[in-house]
Write a structure and sequence with these properties.
Length: about 120
Amino acid sequence: KVLSNRRPPYGIYGGLFDALSDTQGKVLLADNTETLEAMRLFEQYEGVDIHPAAGVALASLMKEIKENRLDKKSIIMLNITGGGEKLFMKNHDLYYLKPSLIVESTIEKTKLEEQLKSLW
């Protein structure tokens, strides 16, 4: 659930799908145990906690290295996109905000436009 969206609002040209297609890249997997270990190691060595999605990315890369599946000349992009919350919370209070608008996925276009205009 962390890494997927069954109904993305729009395709992003030049996004991950295009990058993987253009470079003939791979999508890799990691289970929960591998992910948690990767997250623990990242925090231990880098001093920053990371989100599970980033942990999956790191764990799958670690597995590829361990199983000697990478060409040493490969160019690798490791996408660490979220983290640092534990570190931030040590020195800051968090305030959770409620959304100004919650929209159902089945809303009609005109109704959506009305609701969006009401925000301003």
